[in-house]
Amino acid sequence: MKKYEIEISPVARLDIKNRVYGITRDLLNPDAAKRYRTGMLKKNESLRTTGASRAPSLYESVQKRYGPTARTAIYKKYTIIYNIDSNAIWIRRVIASSLIT
Q1: Number of other CB atoms surrounding residue 4 within 10 Å
Q2: In the 8-state DSSP scheme, what is residue 96?
């Protein structure tokens, strides 16, 4: 089984940072925010070996914005949007699943 490098775009890093900040601010729960961040990073890391096994996204909005080979993975209520090249998985965005149409 091929292992890919994981590259997280600056925008995706900001998406994660904003979600962690939101949990801390809205829920007043920094421990939950830390658990969320750790879980999200573990999910991203798991794509190293499982990312290629997912089919390209069927969402037209995802294909239009990130290309016809863009794929998605879910963590809690958030969708991780990524592309694969020969050596790396490029995590492009982490957005609320409810926003994908």
Answers
A1: 19
A2: E
Q: Please give the backbone phi and psi of residue 85, each rounded to the nearest 5 degrees, phi first.
A: -120, -170
Nearest to 78 by CA among 45, 50, 37, 49: 37
The separation between the first and the last C-alpha atoms of the chain, rounded to the nearest angstrom, is: 32
Kindly list the distances between the CA atom of residue 59 and the CA atoms of 13, 17, 48, 80, in Å, as whole numbers in the listed order: 22, 25, 23, 13
Q: Is the pLDDT of residue 88 over 90?
A: yes
The pTM of the full predicted model, rounded to 2 decimals, is: 0.93
Dihedral sign for Cα atoms in the order 17, 22, 25, 29: negative
List, as one string, the DSSP characters of 68-92: TT-EEEEETTEEEEEEE-SSEEEEE
Distance of CA 73 to the CA centre of its chain: 7
**3-state SS assignment for residue 55:** coil
